[in-house]
Amino acid sequence: MTKRSTMGRIRQGEFFLIAGPCVVESAMMCEEVAGQIKSWCEDLNIPYVFKASYRKANRSSLHSFTGIGDDQALGVLGKISKDMDLPVTSDIHTEEEAEIAAPYLDVLQIPAFLCRQTTLLQAAGQTGKIVNIKKGQFMSAQAMKFAMEKSNEAGAADTWLTERGNSFGYQDLIVDYRNIPWMQALDATTILDCTHSLQQPNQPKGVTGGNPELIPVIARAGVAAGANGVFIETHPHPEMALSDGANMLPLNQLLPLLESLKRIHAAIQ
Questions:
Q1: CB contact at 8 A, 108 and 117
Q2: 8 found inside a domain
Q3: Is residue 206 a contact partner of residue 164, using CB atoms and an 8 Å limit?
Q4: Model confidence at 51: pLDDT above 90
Q5: Helix, strand or coil for residue 200?
Q6: Over the Cα atoms of the chain, what is R_g?
Q7: Is residue 56 situated within a structural domain?
Q8: Which residues, 6 or more positions from 35, have their beta carbon under 8 angstroms from its beta carbon?
Q9: Domains contained in the chain, number
Q10: At what angle do helices 27-44 and 70-83 cross, to 10 degrees?
Q11: What is the pLDDT of residues 97-151, one digit of tens each?
Q12: Cβ density class 55-85: b for 16+ within 10 Å, e for less
């Protein structure tokens, strides 16, 4: 499955996967994860977009890991895109980052906390790439119409929307599955972030917690609700991950989950 065919199938509405580690830790680890997931997705005929953040800007603690360096991390993503013929995505946080990162990425991802930042959304759209906006924990599905307009009117190839849960008190999130059809009604490819919707933010120790054991539950419910795609952060050894290890699915658990998601998706068609 080539990058071009993958993006074409997503445009046509096929169910797809965005997955990878939270952050670029090393070229070797990213290549291992990307290669393994690509193989599984080809066997299951699921279009696949590799994800890893080249820089983590919104960290709980000043001492949290933010990356290996922008140039090096973007180089890793660019190499995976070229050598494996895979579409890749990463977060951006500022207008300047949109311009810097766009040559390496197929999809520019806007973090949930930044989903109303007009100049950021416009800068992302001006690259001509696809923009994936994560719905803020504080936003309604219907209000995301205005975020979409900012990137689309600036020239984005397309704008996707991602549900990632709404704030539920100070230290928990909850997914409202009504948001999936509501955002699709905005004519948006709609994705469910099965990882960050299970975060437990604002922990007193300064490190975000999570419930990764529930990722299969969230993912299956999202596909049953009609999500166009799912977003899952995964790592060969989450307990050793440098960022968000408490939220990631162990890589060896991804294949059986994808097999079940494929069956659910087929059943609702």
A1: no
A2: no
A3: no
A4: yes
A5: strand
A6: 17
A7: yes
A8: 84
A9: 1
A10: 30
A11: 999 999 999 999 999 999 999 999 999 999 999 999 999 999 999 999 999 999 9
A12: bbeeeeeeeeebbbeeeebbbbbbbbbeebe
187-213 b/e (C-beta count within 10 Å ≥ 16 → b): ebbbbbbbbbbbbeeebeeeebbbbbe
Q: How many Cβ atoms from other residues are within 10 Å of residue 128's Cβ?
A: 12
pLDDT (tens digit per residue) in 54-84? 987 764 454 566 778 999 999 999 999 999 9
Note down the domain range covering 250. Answer: 19-268
Tell me the C-alpha distance between 76 and 31, whole Å.
8
Which residue is it, tokens 């999809």? 107
Domain membership flag for residue 248:
yes
Question: How far apart (Å, rounded) are the C-alpha atoms in residues 210 and 188?
Answer: 28
For residues 144 and 123, what is the distance between their CA atoms, to the nearest angstrom?
A: 17
- Residue that the structure tokens 């049953």 belong to: 224
Residue 81 dihedral angles phi and psi, to the nearest 5°: -60, -45
CATH value at residue 250 = 3.20.20.70
Please report, as a single letter, which amino acid is at residue 42: E
59 vs 206: CA distance, rounded Å: 9
CA distances from 261 to 50, 88, 255, 265 (A): 18, 22, 10, 6
3-state secondary structure of 105: coil
Which two three-digit tokens encode residue 246?
């408490």
Q: Per the domain annotation, does 12 fall within a domain?
A: no
Q: Choose among 86, 39, 84: nearest CA to 255.
A: 39
Predicted local distance difference test score (pLDDT) of residue 210: 72
pLDDT confidence of residue 246: 78
* Measured CA angle at 177 (ends 55, 233), to 5 deg: 30
pLDDT more than 70, % of the chain: 93
Structural element, H or E, at residue 90:
strand 88-91
Are the beta carbons of 53 and 23 closer than 8 angstroms?
Answer: yes
Spell out the residues 6+ positions from residue 185 whose beta carbon is closer than 8 angstroms to its own.
Answer: none
